[in-house]
Amino acid sequence: MTSVADAAEVDGASELASSDPLARCLAATLDVAEAADTLGLSTAALRAAYDNGIRRVGFPGNAYLLALAGGTGVGKSSLLNALAGGVVSAASVRRPTTGEPVAWVPRIEREPLGPLLDWLGVHEIHEHDGMALGPVAILDLPDVDSVTREHRERVEAILPRVDAVAWVTDPEKYADAVLHDAFLRSWIPRIARQVVLVNKADRVVDDDGRRIRRDLEADLRRESVQGRDVAVLLSSTVDGHGTDDLRAWLAAGVDAKAVIRGRISATLLAGVRDVARAAGIDPNRPTTPFLAAAERADGIRRATAAVLRAVDLDGLRAQAVAATRATARSRGTGPLGRVTSFLYRASGRATAVADPNRFLLRWRDRGAIGPAVDAIREAVSASIVAASPAVRPVLAGAVEPTEVRRGLERALDRAIGGVGRLEPPTSRWWSVVGLLQTLSTVGIALSAAWVVVWILARPVTGSITVPIVGPVPSPFVSLVAFTLAGYVLARVLGAHAGWMGSRWANVIRRRVATAIDTEIRERALEPLDRLEDARRRLATAAAAVETSCG
User: Fold this and answer.
1) d(CA 70, CA 80)
2) Whose CA is closest to 137, among 176, 106, 95?
């Protein structure tokens, strides 16, 4: 079943569709609240103001709601009775024990105001037939300084939902701390239409009355929204002095809808300003980032250098060269090379010294990124100290060592993953060298067999005269020649593979360094960047509220 308040909220949203400034103000207020949540700021009061505003404009009726608020014995009830010309609210130095508000409403507005009064929890309602005071319904509230806690809580629950307030005091209580500190200072900026009544003015001489009025006007001007003047009236229910001034103020060509929207706008504006101040933002000035560009760049540079040291690019280069040579051996060293390559892999030697993929993935086994964490935190430390106290905890949390470490580790893992599978380069010349090595191996085998036969059978063979050594049988010359050819081919293969491996290693180094630099630059400060973005959004939305609500 839909409640009255829920129905009013739906009606309020419909009405705001045609009320552009207030609609923009409310939308921008929500943006402020969402950004402030990210910054860890309290937004309960601002969201309550938004909800109250949406619901208030949805209630029917052509009258605005004015509350009489003040301390014990200042004459609120007597003032209402004087306006009504009869007893509406019981007057006493001590408030009634119920502490319930009393409503005095135009009879013509009684039915339309019913849902609004139900929302406020007002049940004692008196009607009148006159409209000389304008489209206004008046509430006589419990005392703001009541010794009964429930009475004060009742006032604090109703004040956020009324449209205007007449603050009632007297010459003895006009400077009372409870009224000023707990109510006026808080509510003056949040209510567009309000008046302060210094009742019992018959008890002071004219000069004292003017002084009291002048002091109050100066105090209220400092507390009001955009320096708006708050009217101060002197009144007396004994001789009727000043009551006509209050009647004139109430009836001064007021548009009830304008009062309602003005109250909503003023409340939202004051709430947004409170949140903006807590975030360290002045809507009228450019917003500076938590971390200046120069400090950010320096921190990123030092963090990147520390991470690259942990990865060990020199070790990666050695692995890449070794992996290229291992590939060359498997293709360019003939049958014996294939056997040695198999043994190289089977023994685990290749995995240990010639596998750049494994070397990168196991970076945690070699180095720590503590220095990179320190670089990030040092860059942000000054910003934490300079931040507003309300934002400081969440900002410090964004660069908490464990979180920074995790962020850097994720960035490094993403960078390594982005490099892709590293496959050593190959060359078609290696196959040619491999064929020549096979022929060399065959030649070595045949020459060795020839040498054995020559030693055993001493067949007649030719010889080759070698300087210093003299004549050498042909089998021995053939064996030495093929062996020397195999050695030269192996050296040529190794040199070529080393050259190709070095080129590939340099490419890998650049790819890994670039990937790490990019990831750290874009991702390592993600928690801080979220706060920076929220702060920018809050500043933009607060400026929109200033424009739409101001």
Assistant:
1) 13
2) 106
Domain ranges of the chain: 62-259, 293-524
Q: Which fold has domain 62-259?
A: Rossmann fold (3.40.50)
- For the chain, the C-alpha Rg in angstroms (whole number) is 44
Q: How far apart are CA 139 and CA 101, in angstroms?
A: 6
Q: Mind giving me the DSSP string for 308-329?
A: HHHHTHHHHHHHHHHHHHHHHH
Pairing of strands 231-234, 193-198: parallel
Where are any strands of DSSP class E within 170-296?
A: 193-198, 231-234
Name the helix (H) or strand (E) containing 105.
strand 102-106
At 84-132, the pLDDT tens digits run 877 777 765 554 445 789 999 999 999 999 999 999 999 999 998 877 8
Q: Show the tokens assigned to 287.
A: 């917003």
- What single-letter amino acid sits at 79? L
Collapse the DSSP code of 130 into the 3-class scheme (helix H, G, I; strand E, B; otherwise coil) and give the result.
Answer: coil
Question: Residue 299: CB partners within 8 Å, gap ≥ 6?
Answer: 291, 375, 376, 378, 379, 380
Mapped onto helix, strand or coil, the DSSP state of residue 60 is: coil
Tell me the pLDDT tens digit for each residue of 15-67.
555 446 888 999 999 999 999 999 999 999 999 999 999 999 889 888 999 99
Nearest-angstrom CA–CA distance, 398 and 384: 10
DSSP state, residue 386: H
Instruction: Look at residues 348, 369, 362, 341 and name the one whose alpha carbon lies nearest to residue 497.
Output: 341
Backbone angles phi, psi at 501, to 5 degrees: -65, -40
Report the 10 Å Cβ neighbour count for 160: 18
Encoded tokens for 502: 């070095």
